[in-house]
Amino acid sequence: MVYIERSIVIQGPIQEVYELAKDMERYPEFMPDVESVKVIERESHRTVTEWETSVDGTPILWTEEDRFYDEKFVIEYQLIEGDLDKFEGEWRFVEREGGTQVTLTVDYDFGIPELTNLIGPTLQQKVGENSEMMLEGMKRRIEGT
């Protein structure tokens, strides 16, 4: 099991940053590694989304459940199906002077110890880089840079 956490401060109001994160279908517009996000179920505080991403040219596909806690500015996600045994985490949004601190966590497990030993460190680096890319994409979108 591997846990990754990345944070960034975005110069924008917490509600605007949070709403952008909730609008996952727009991620491909400003996150280069996200090919598509399709909402297949939508309720007031929950969605089920299908993801297609690319890491170094390798496609990665999965379906996740996303839960929105608007009063706490938190989004939790959890794997429904995909190639990993475990893939879950959360987005947390906290007001800071002059902006919003966004923290993205990813907790995943291959479920195959031999594979983890073989490519685990490389994948851990790529997941960290991908998390940073997602945060930077949100920052550019909100700040207009």
- Counting DSSP E segments of at least 2 residues, the number of strands comes to 7
Number of domains: 1
**Main sheet?**
7 strands, antiparallel
Q: Low-confidence segments, ≥5 residues, pLDDT <50? A: none
Strand content: over 45%
Assembly state (oligomeric) = single chain
Secondary structure: helix percent:
25-40%
Nearest-integer average pLDDT: 88
CATH topology heading: Alpha-D-Glucose-1,6-Bisphosphate, Chain A, domain 4
Secondary-structure arrangement, i.e. CATH architecture: 2-Layer Sandwich
SSE sequence, one letter per element: EHHEEEEEEH
List keywords for this structure.
single chain, 145 residues, alpha+beta, Alpha-D-Glucose-1,6-Bisphosphate, Chain A, domain 4, seven-stranded antiparallel beta sheet, 3 helices, globular
How would you characterize this protein structure?
With 145 residues, the protein is of the alpha+beta class. The protein has a single domain (2-143), classed as Alpha-D-Glucose-1,6-Bisphosphate, Chain A, domain 4 (2-Layer Sandwich). It has three helices and seven strands. The protein has a seven-stranded antiparallel beta sheet with strand order 1-7-6-5-4-3-2, with helices on one face. A hairpin with a 2-residue loop joins strand 6 (86-96) and strand 7. The model has no long low-confidence stretch (mean pLDDT 88).
Report a brief summary of the structure:
With 145 residues, this protein is an alpha+beta fold. It is 30% helix and 50% strand.
